[in-house]
Amino acid sequence: MVRMLLVGPPGAGKGTQAVLLSKAFSIPAISTGDIFRANVRDETPLGVEAKGFMDRGEYVPDSLTNALVADRLSHDDCTSGFLLDGYPRTLDQVRALDEVIAAQGHQLDVVVELTVDPDIVIDRIRVRATEQGRTDDNEDVMRNRLELYARETAPLIQVYGGRQILVSVDGIGSIDDVTGRIVEALGLRGLRA
Ligand code: ADP
User: Fold this and answer.
1) Tens of pLDDT along 8-22?
2) Domain residue spans in the chain?
3) For residue 113, how far is its CA from the centre of ligand 1 (angstroms)?
4) How is domain 2-187 classified at the CATH fold level?
């Protein structure tokens, strides 16, 4: 039973690790980026509203994102824990998430920060742009997302650090190495699969 978050810049490998950790800990991986992309693809009202922000590399407004996550965390599969990937990304989202979890009578166990060198991040996003054809993976949009991360999301790391629930893990290396490091760091905090 683990309630955790993954934080890190775009291209840090959060999505990849989220899938593996979700299996290892038998908890659902909830990626706001994936949920938004599915809504854009299906042209739902949420997708129509989110698309412009995403294509420009901006954050979808907190009101929309917070409502989406609150709804998702109310599903039965989240009662025994969850892993959030790509949320929260703003201080307002941190506050909203705290409220949702507290209302359920729980608290966040751990926040895993994936650290990567900015040059490596840019290379990875370039590769992903070619492989997956994401419309938000072009050069200008990518810079916008990295800047936005530094300005809006990096401050969250201090907040969670202050709560003593932050674990920083080196995101450079093979996928399995990184998963191994995360599992080990969680184990040291008594969080086991
Ligand atoms: P990456 O990890 O590469 O930044 P994501 O797949 O997590 O990409 O997110 C893609 C886009 O979806 C973001 O650039 C943003 O527009 C939107 N998005 C995802 N999560 C959030 C969030 N928590 N708050 C606001 N917008 C979000």
Assistant:
1) 999 899 999 999 999
2) 2-187
3) 16
4) Rossmann fold (3.40.50)
